[in-house]
C-alpha cells in the first residue's frame, strides 16, 4: 500500500482526534501524545512532538483551543495546559457530524465494491 496515501488519511483526522482528546478535559502536550499513542499507535503509527505541537499551535491560532501556562511540579519549569474554547467545542461538534456522514458515505462505497467486485 502506498505510504503517502495512508499519511493523507492520518493527517486529515489528527486535528479532530486532538480536539476530541482535549475536549475530555484540560491536558498538556506529553499527555496528549501518550494518550494518542496508547489508543491508536497500531493504526496511526506513533505520534511525535514534531507532529503534535505544530497542530496544537495551529488550533490555538484558529481560536479552537486555549493555552494556560502553569508550573510543572517535576522539574520546576512550566507546562502548557490546553483546553477547548467555545468555538473549539462548536467546531468539534461540526467535525464529528461531518465525520459520521463521511464515514457512512465511504462505508457505502466499500460495501458496494465488496458486493460487486470481490469473489
Topology:
Elements: H1 3-23, E1 27-28, H2 29-44, H3 49-61, E2 65-71, E3 78-84, H4 86-117
Antiparallel strand pairs: 1-3, 2-3
Helix pairs in contact: 1-2, 1-4, 2-3
Describe this structure in words.
- The protein is an alpha+beta fold and 119 residues long.
- The chain has helices spanning 3-23, 29-44, 49-61, 86-117; strands spanning 27-28, 65-71, 78-84.
- The protein has a single domain, classed as Arc Repressor Mutant, subunit A.
- It has a three-stranded antiparallel sheet.
- The chain is elongated and about 60 Å long.
- The two termini are 21 Å apart.
CATH fold field value = Arc Repressor Mutant, subunit A
Helix content: 55-70%
Q: Ends: how far apart?
A: 21 Å
Could you report the average pLDDT, rounded to the nearest whole number?
A: 90
Task: Provide the spatial order of strands within the biggest beta sheet.
Answer: 1-3-2
Indicate the CATH architecture.
Orthogonal Bundle
CATH class reads Mainly Alpha
**The CATH H-level homologous superfamily:** Winged helix-like DNA-binding domain superfamily/Winged helix DNA-binding domain
- pLDDT below 50 for ≥5 consecutive residues: which ranges? none
Extended strand count: 3
Order of helices and strands: HEHHEEH
Overall form: elongated
- Largest sheet properties: 3 strands, antiparallel
Estimate the strand proportion.
5-15%
Given helix and strand content, the structural type is: alpha+beta
Amino acid at each position: 500500500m502506498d505510504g503517502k496515501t495512508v499519511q493523507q488519511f492520518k493527517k486529515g483526522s489528527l486535528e479532530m482526534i486532538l480536539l476530541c482528546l482535549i475536549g475530555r478535559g484540560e491536558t498538556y502536550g506529553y499527555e496528549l501524545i501518550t494518550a494518542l499513542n496508547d489508543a491508536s499507535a497500531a493504526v496511526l503509527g506513533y505520534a511525535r512532538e514534531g507532529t503534535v505541537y505544530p497542530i496544537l499551535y495551529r488550533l490555538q491560532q484558529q481560536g479552537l483551543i486555549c493555552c494556560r501556562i502553569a508550573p510543572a511540579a517535576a522539574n520546576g519549569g512550566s507546562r502548557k495546559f490546553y483546553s477547548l474554547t467555545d468555538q473549539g467545542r462548536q467546531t468539534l461538534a461540526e467535525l464529528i457530524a461531518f465525520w459520521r456522514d463521511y464515514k457512512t458515505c465511504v462505508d457505502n462505497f466499500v460495501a458496494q465494491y465488496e458486493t460487486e467486485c470481490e469473489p
